[in-house]
Design goal:
Helix content: 40-55%
Shape: globular
Order of helices and strands: HHEEHHEHHEHHHEE
Strand content: 5-15%
Structural class: mainly alpha
Oligomer: single chain
Number of helices: 9
Number of strands: 6
Largest sheet: 2 strands, antiparallel
Radius of gyration: 23 Å
């Protein structure tokens, strides 16, 4: 079951004291907040213990930052998106894009755009039990996060920001209205502090679930409030410098994914050739000699 309203108002966030250092302010802030998050996760503190009561809506400066960056990125990434769209159209057919209804605020929804990476089917709260529907091209796009590129359109429209809490599904907001009344006071983002910090921890929690229903219940009970806690820490310390750090850490994910794919390609040919050689060789029962199939 989702956390109750009483559990969410225990006490506000208490930040770990940050010692003076030679680092830039936003790096110091980020290191301090990550230490707080790690301590909370390791000590298994209640997820509601660090939920604050504030909300910081998007400022004109943050909106100008988003517009300038998205216009700069649309020039090089527009060609990349066109190539991906043509490849998906040739290999998977239509539709090329997938529109997911997400919540910009507790009462306002919008269509979040992605490249289609799965076969048609019902949309679930968690993606772990939809892995069997992921296409071959979709798996590659997801690994390098290129399926998120169409969300530049959402940023240009003003539905999203580059950095902020990930936009939730309507069902999740309906199950946890008190939490998202605070979290969605900030504009949803393509990436965020919770996305970078809690992603692997969330995957480990949901990996133990056997059914989609159990995964949804576990997500609402154990993940939503903890991710909200991290999103509210970002709200309290939000700055342009912190946004740049989170964007840089997000860009490191597809770069690492591309590097992994290239390393796999280098090591694959030898094994592939051996399998092909074994499959193309048969034994002549008359002459007892191996012959290669042309």
């Amino acid at each position: 079951a989702a956390p109750s309203a009483a559990e969410l108002t225990v006490f506000p966030v208490t930040l770990i004291p940050i010692r003076p250092s030679c680092k830039p302010p936003f790096m110091t802030v980020l290191s301090g907040e990550l230490s707080l998050i790690r301590q909370n996760l390791q000590n298994r503190l209640p997820a509601s213990a660090c939920l604050g009561t504030w909300g910081r809506p998007m400022t004109p400066g943050k909106r100008c930052f988003d517009l300038v960056l998205v216009l700069v990125l649309l020039v090089p990434l527009g060609a990349v998106m066109l190539i991906i769209a043509v490849v998906l159209l040739a290999l998977q057919g239509r539709p090329v894009f997938f529109a997911s209804v997400r919540m910009r605020s507790p009462a306002r929804s919008f269509r979040l755009w992605k490249f289609r990476t799965m076969l048609p089917g019902p949309e679930t709260v968690t993606a772990g039990h939809s892995a069997s529907r992921v296409t071959r091209c979709g798996g590659i796009l997801r690994r390098v996060r290129l399926d998120e590129l169409p969300q530049l359109w959402n940023i240009l429209r003003g539905d999203m920001s580059f950095v902020g809490p990930r936009p939730p599904l309507r069902a999740v907001v309906a199950a946890c209205p008190d939490i998202y009344a605070r979290v969605l006071a900030s504009r949803p983002g393509v990436t965020g502090l919770a996305s970078l910090v809690f992603h692997r921890h969330e995957a480990r929690i949901l990996a133990r679930c056997r059914t989609p229903g159990a995964a949804e219940d576990t997500y609402l009970r154990r993940c939503v409030a903890r991710k909200a806690r991290i999103d509210l820490i970002y709200q309290a310390r939000r700055s342009t410098g912190l946004d740049l750090v989170l964007i840089a850490r997000t860009l490191a994910v597809p770069i690492g994914g591309i590097g992994g794919i290239l390393r796999a390609r280098r090591t694959a040919p030898r094994g592939i050739r051996r399998k092909e050689q074994k499959s193309n060789v048969w034994r002549d029962p008359v002459n007892q000699k191996s012959r290669r199939i042309a």
